Amino acid sequence: MKKLFTLFLLLITVSAAFAKPPKNQYVRIKTTYGEVIIRLYNETPQHRDNFIKLAKKGFYNGTLFHRVIQDFMIQGGDPDSKNAKPGIELGNGDVGYTIPAEFRDSLFHKRGVLAAARDDNPKKASSGCQFYIVEGKRFTDSLLNKAEKRSGHKIPEWQRVVYRSVGGAPHLDGNYTVYGEVVAGIDMVDLVAAVKKDKNDRPLLDVPMTVEVLSKKECKQLNKILNL
Fold it and tell me: What is the pTM of this model?
């Protein structure tokens, strides 16, 4: 009987190890200004898996939103921002590797998306840890035409509809990998983007974050609510 019970536990352990992840995976980012829940895109698996790996390790906990620009975006994930002294310019910290660009025509810089920061490397590879969330603004067709020239990326009409009505940052399309989107709590992004900041766009009062990966049960519940 004892052997059967041990075998049963072993089977459960093996089954759990090989269990498929939920159809869509979500993370929660908390700050003193509230929290957002973000769905990570399956179309960008390398960025999705890397973000989940770092979040599970607790890598992001205590890091700051170190660069905020109203009507544009809030950026964080620099490991050097943990316990950084006031006034120190941030944004150069990394994890020692990059993620290959995963550009997808269907994924663009609409309001609320999660995207990867990067340096000026020719392959447009992403930072292994730094990211930003787009607050954005609404664009007219004239401004969209200018954004096309700036980015060198043609904006299809169906995306123009979103940029005109919802807003975003179209000049970043085709240059930075988009790999998730806010599904709840976008007000947090607006509040953080509006804080007072210094000449380097760092908030005068630190905005630390905690990041957690939602459980399989929570992910399934969200998929059902969002009809995904």
Answer: 0.90
